Amino acid sequence: MLDHLKFKQKRHNLQVNLAQLKVLCAELYQKYCPRYISQRRNTTNSRVSDVQILALLCLQVITQMHSQRKFFAWAQTFIPHQLNIERSRFNRRAQRLLPVVMAMRQGLTRDYAQTGQFAIIDSLPNPLCQKVRNKRAKVFRGIADLGYNATKDMYFYGFKTHFETSLSGYILNYTVTEASKHDTQAASTLIAGCPCPFVLADVGYVGQPLQEDFGELGYELWTPYRSNMKGAKQHNVPALKDLRRTIESRFSILVEDYGIEKNLTRSVVGFWLKIELTVFIYN
User: 251 and 137, same structural domain?
Assistant: First the structure.
């Protein structure tokens, strides 16, 4: 049957993927995990280790299961020997591993990221509800708010994630703000500590004040001019515009392959953990 030309059986390597994730997480956990977590009391008596939970969380991101309840039920069906704890306990253990995921991601960036001379900054929306519920949504009230995304021409309620990437697409840093915060207001915080002296951005970052702020921090910011601005033809170098579009391709991967825009968590720690895991797996 496998010899038939039209045989298109969808195969999965679930056990292989999970085993590989365990090996990777074990190595990074041993290298980057803070001591106050790895050497806490009674850690050897846990029925499910931190490495095992990290591997399962990474598997959840890879399989694009946005609901932890759905993923837990799915895992109990297909890999029951990997989950010897209740779902509520699994959720608490997962949220407590947020510092570990952050340390692993930052350690990988510090030790292995190939930065080069150019960095690219941009943002994408994280809506928390459908458009019709923008003014009635209560989740994260007081933290999230209403914002506008010019690329998709839509208003949304939620957050906005600002990214800083290298030319190769490696995510060097990110920050999350309320949806109404303009990209220029988060740019200085986002770029702090960037190893690249030149920063590329889109027309949303155009402005002399931001140019001066970046200059004081030791960076040179380049943004394309709008078509009706003076000197736009001479300033808008096609090669730099093509380099800047690299981040848009990376956003497409983050959205389509990892579902970074769709976050069903209803706690700050859970939301943060989803973003951290997505960036960690992507890198």
Answer: yes
Q: What percent of the chain has pLDDT over 90?
A: 49
Question: Would residue 174 count as lying in a domain?
Answer: yes
Residue 7 pLDDT more than 70? no
Q: Report, as an integer, the average pLDDT of 45-51.
A: 88
Give the DSSP letter string of 106-167: HHHHHHH----SEEEEEEEEEE-S-GGGTTT--TTBTTBEEEEETTTTEEEEEEEEEEEEET
For the record, the structure tokens of 88 come out as: 């509520």
* Chain segment 159-173, per-residue pLDDT in tens: 999 999 999 889 999
The secondary structure of residue 42, as a DSSP letter, is T
Rounded distance, CA 101 to CA 275, Å?
Answer: 10
Domain termination site, one of 83, 106, 129? 106
- Compute the C-alpha angle 95/52/78, nearest 5°: 105
Residues 135, 98 within the same domain: no
Question: 93: number of CA atoms within 13 Å, CB side?
Answer: 21
Q: Are residues 132 and 230 in the same domain?
A: yes
Which of 57, 56, 61, 55 minimizes the C-alpha distance to 26? 55
Q: Domain of 36?
A: 14-106
Whether the Cβ atoms of residue 59 and residue 15 lie closer than 8 Å to each other: no
Q: Strand, helix or coil at 277?
A: helix
